[in-house]
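Quick question, first post here. What does this chain look like in 3D?
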Amino acid sequence: YDTGLGAVEFMGYSFAVGMAMEKHEPEYLDTEMGKNFREFIGFNTERTLTTFCRLLQLYPDVFSSWTLEENWAKLTTGEDGKSFREFAARWFGEEWWNNLLTCKAVAPKLALTAAAAPGANLKTFHYPNHQTAGDAPLWARVNWGSVLTDVSDVVSAGRTWGRNFDMRSTMAHETCHSIVADLEHADCKGSKGFYLVDNTAACVPYFTKFTKDDVCEFIPTGMRWHRYQMYLEEINVGGDALIVLEEWACYTIEAMTALELYDDELLVVQGKIDESTLKNGYGKETATYDTGLGAVEFMGYSFAVGMAMEKHEPEYLDTEMGKNFREFIGFNTERTLTTFCRLLQLYPDVFSSWTLEENWAKLTTGEDGKSFREFAARWFGEEWWNNLLTCKAVAPKLASNGPVPSVDTLRGRY
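> Answer (accepted):
Ran it through. Tokens below.
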């Protein structure tokens, strides 16, 4: 339980070093290298608290004790920690410091565990691995990462999965669809299944009074991006609208895979590892500029499904399982935007294009995306939505451009 608290403890002691410097050697900060002291304090404060908050959020039963809670309370609200709080706010600004101290600088506690967060009441169940050591998908896993390995463990041996795609993120996406098919023939029979990674799945009942075709009227022309024609108009005509959410879930897993693995691509470019060790038969590439934007695109289309439901089948949410539709929208909105924001922050040169920037602007500030923004704010609250949309729900880009926290912390893996 004490792991992580050591970093917080020495963060405070390091603040005390700063106070001692202010008293005894204030001219220290006037030198170019002396300024690095202040920069390091800011850099490692953010890294310490985002990591510690994640430990508290993901493993509350482990990182919990009377001593920990007492000491955390002293730092965050107690009189004992007042001088540390004042120092950090004075050096780095109150908003930045308070966001870190209240754990707002990391994505809010996952919908599966947080009582007040959108998606908090998402009903899920354990979905076990279906692969064994002798099954074909388990071969050649060099540099697959945990997300792609996760979905390849879970998919049933008889399914056609994504191993025939060169891009590892696409492999994860297509394997996600195979898992959905498994769920709909077993645990979620009679409803749509969604796989959330980490052996966790959810079911959402089908609509009965409208179809995917009725969703299009709620998608403004400017928000009909390049996947719209194929997925909303040409395939699955007259089918259940939840197919839109299935695509969204799988595009999100694709983005999560890209975020986890993209560092491998940089090592290839730098000549530090051989490209052949990435491919090993399959899975050579990880991402293009469009990776991640697919999840954002289908997030909007899924909002349109919610709007269609409000018009054609509002009583749907009155059922216990119907409520899972709303919970899933909240859960995956957070996962989509925290992942996409991290891609933009960590790899701006890759995840950048005129198309991406234009579409992102439409969603975040443009007239075309207004109905989507209003829907999300109405369903989940303006503060939560605006924090996600402005990328405030993930830690701001590290000022020093130094090492970032581990990929497990960054990728939005829930």
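Residues 107-115, 277-284, 395-414 have pLDDT under 50 and may be disordered.
The chain has 16 helices and three strands.
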